[in-house]
Amino acid sequence: MQIEIELKANAIQCTKGTKDERGAQIDLILDRDDDVINLCEIKFTREPFIVTSDYYNQVLVKSSRFIRDNKPSKAVRQILISVNGVKRNEYSDEFQTVITLDSLFAPYLTI
Asked: Domains plus CATH for the chain?
């Protein structure tokens, strides 16, 4: 079964910092027609990316600020895109989806 979803992609959204809040950057926003907005964090590392407590808290702050500033009527979900995957731990499981470079291009690879 194949499901087609129309989406609009916005690369990099930055929120300027203030004296009370640090600035924030969302690497990729996918606004889907099925009432979901995916906020994507993109990591380029040689080894599987390790999601630390501090990093995950930064992601939560970005998500909260996006919701506060944009007031979307859609569900907001976190996606982690990592060239070499992610090292599983208690924080990596908080992302709804983890996408590797291989899985992103798998439909286009031929042998």
From this structure: 7-106 (3.40.1350.10)
